[in-house]
Amino acid sequence: MVRLAAGHKFDRDVELLIYYKDAHQPTAVVEAGQASVKPGTLMGDPVVMVSLYPEFPKAVMSTVASCGEFVFLLDRSGSMDCSSNNSKQQETRIGNARDTLLLLLKSLPMGCYFNIYSFGSTYESIFPKSVEYSETTMEEALKKVEKMDADLGGTEILEPLKHIYSQSCIPNQPRQLFVFTDGEVGNTKEVLNLVTKNSGSHRCFSFGIGGGASSALINGLAKEGGGHAQLITGTDRMQTKVMQSLQFALQPAVENISVTWDLPKGVSVTVLSQPITTIFQGKRSLVYAQLTGQSSEAAEGSVMVKYSLAGHFTQNQLRFSLKPAEDTGLTIHRLGAQTLIRSLEMEEREHQDGGVKEKVVELSVQSGVSSSFTAFIAVMKSDGKVIQGPLVHRAIPVAMLMQACSSTLSYQKALHEMTGMELALYRDSLLQCSLYDCIIQSKSDTSTSFFSRIKKKLSAVFRKPSEKPL
After folding, report:
1. Rounded distance, CA 181 to CA 460, Å?
2. Which domains does the chain show, CATH number per domain?
3. H-helix or E-strand containing 144?
4. Among residues 105, 125, 342, 424, which one has the fewest Cβ atoms lying within 10 Å of its Cβ?
5. Main-chain dihedrals φ then ψ at residue 318, nearest 5 degrees
6. What does the alpha-carbon distance between residue 276 and residue 256 come to, in Å, rounded to a whole number?
7. Quick one: 348 exposed, middle or buried, by C-beta within 10 A (0-12, 13-18, 19+)?
8. pTM
9. How far is CA 39 from CA 261, 268, 409, in A?
10. Cβ within 8 Å of residue 205, ≥6 positions away
C-alpha cells in the first residue's frame, strides 16, 4: 500500500516507480480457479503463467553487435498514398514508411551489409546485391529512399520475397529481413509458407504502416520468420519502436526452444498460448497453461524451459504449487483467456470454421474477455433489465448548463424541465465542471480541505430539486 505524507499538497504530479527484484529470473505463478465455477473449465481450474525475461551473456552479444546483412522491403503500392490515420491532415503511409526506413538506415552498425527493395505490381532494388554499409553507401541509399513514392501499383509481395530468398547469404553475416507494408494480400498463406521455409537462414521483422494494416500478414511474417512485429501509425512514437526492432535484429537467434511439463499422476496440462518461437533480450515471453485434475501424491509441479544461444545451452526448471491460495483474483485466468481467444480468432479468420467461433463465444462469455464475436451490454441497475434498441444520439444543452451553474433560479427551472436521461447527462456535465474547479483550486490545499471541497460539490450536484442549494 502506498500512502501520501500527511499534509501533502496537490501541487505537482505524483510518480510511482516500481523496480523488479531479480528482473531477469524466470518465474512461474499459479492462480486458483473460481470456486463457484465447475472444475474442468478454464475459469474453474488453476492457471499457471510462466514468464521469461532473459539477459544474454555480454560476451555473446558483443560478438554479433556489428555484423549482419539487412535487407529492407518497402511497399510502394497505390494504397500507401493514403493517410496513416484516415485523416486528411495526417501524414501518408508512404511518408511514414520512408521516415521509418530512413531512421533504420542511419542506425545500422558500420561494417554490416544492406540492400533496399521496393515493390508494388513489380519490384526493384537500389543495389544489384547487398553492399557494405559505409558513409558513401548510406548517403546514396538515403537520397534514393527520400524520392520513393507510392507509384508501383498493386501489392504483390510474393515475387520480391522469392528473389530475396534466392540470393546467397554472405558468410558470417546473418540476414535480417525488414518488411514495410499496409496491405492485405490475397495469398497470405503462400507468403507465410515461403517465410517459414526460409526461416532457418533469414529472420523477418515486419512493420504494419497505418491503422488498417493486416494484422494476419504483419504478425504472421514475424512469427513464421522468427522476428518481431510492429504497427506504426501517425500518432506513434516511431523512433522507440524502430530502435527496438533493430536491437532485436542485432541479437543472435535463439534456437531449439522447448517447454516441458512435469506433473504428478492425475494432473494434466493444456497450454493456452502459442508455442514460443522467438526469445529476445528486452522482450518478455509468456506461457499460459490450464491445470486440470488433482493429485493426492504431490502438491508441486514443475516446468522446464530450454534453449540455445550462439552455441550456449540454457535451461531453467521452475517449480510451482498445485494448491495455490484461493480468492486472489482472476487476472492470470483472464490474460490466459485473452491469449487463447486471439489465437482462435486468427484460426477462424483463416479457416472460417463455425465450431471455432462457438468456442470463442463460449470462452469470451465465461471469462468476461471481449472478442470479435461478443460485446459488453449495459443493464439498468434500478430494474435489472438489459438496455435494448439502437443507439440514440442526445445533444447536451451546454448553454443551459452554464446558465444553471451561475443562477439558482435557472438551475431550478432546468432541473424541472429535463427528462430523466437529460437530467443524468446534466449532472454528469456539472460533476465534471465541479471536480475540475476543485482541482484548479487545490494547489494550495491540504488533502483534508481538498476532499472537503469535493464532498461539498458532490452534495450540490446530487441534491434533490426541492432542496435548497448549499
Report:
1. 55
2. 66-249 (3.40.50.410), 398-462 (no CATH)
3. helix 135-146
4. 424
5. -115, 125
6. 10
7. buried
8. 0.72
9. 21, 13, 61
10. 176, 177, 178, 179, 222, 225, 227, 228, 229, 230, 245, 248, 249
Minimum mean pLDDT range among 151-165, 321-335, 400-414, 446-460: 400-414
What's the pLDDT at 399? 47
Q: Cα angle vertex 182, ends 180, 183, to 5°? A: 120
Give residue-wise pLDDT tens across range 376-393: 887 777 877 777 777 777
pLDDT at 293 over 70: yes
User: CA 84: distance to chain centroid?
Assistant: 18
- Give the model's pLDDT for residue 325: 83
Question: Which of 184, 186, 278, 187 shows the shortest CA–CA distance to 229?
Answer: 278
Residue 133 CB neighbour total at 10 angstroms = 21
Regarding beta strands 113-119 and 202-209, do their DSSP bridges make them parallel or antiparallel, or are they unpaired?
unpaired
- At a CB cut-off of 8 Å and minimum separation 6, what does 264 contact? 295, 297, 298, 301, 322
Cell of 127: 543495389
Strand partners, 179: 73, 206
Instruction: Name which of 48, 43, 45, 50 is nearest 369 in CA terms.
Output: 43
